[in-house]
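User: I'm curious whether this sequence folds into something compact or stays loose and floppy. Could you predict its structure so I can see for myself?
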Amino acid sequence: MDQLSALFATTGVLPAALVIGVLLLVVLLPALRRLVFGAEPRHALRVLLSPWEREALAALRTAVPPDWHVCPQVRVGDFLSVIGGSEQARSAAHRRIRQRSVDFLVIDAESRPRLVIELDDSSHRQPNRRRRDAENDAAYRQAGLPVRHIQPGRRPDWLSMIAAVMTQAPPPGPPADTGA
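Assistant: Here's the prediction. I'll summarize afterward.
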């Protein structure tokens, strides 16, 4: 054994073998991981709006006043907060709705939400989706925010819909500039 140790020490084979082993491990480990676990997930862009949503957005943009905006695909938690009740009840109510989104949110010149528009495709006929829509609608009503559900194939009178919202007082809420 002493002869073997002396051979490694004088020839440098052991340090070289360790360096080569570490390099092979560094190079082969990602390939081995891909082989065992599959390829790493990647992010890719996707189209945000369906053709029906793009058509509705174009029509809505012509119906709102120049200083109002139509915002597509807005998370409910970004415009609706939960107030009152116990901390536990508020947290539960917020968790139920925060990640849901609306097809369109119409906001006024002060960035106050004025109207939710949902384009109800066939998925909205499923029982679990109907319950979710009813829960969402109840939350919008509590906040004083009108919601309109549009069925496929219908050509709504966007101008009348927006004009009706413009004649109503904005829903109660925090001042436009919350400092957030």
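Summary: Strands lie at 69-75, 101-107, 113-119, 147-150. The helical segments are 2-11, 13-37, 51-63, 87-97, 127-143, 158-167.
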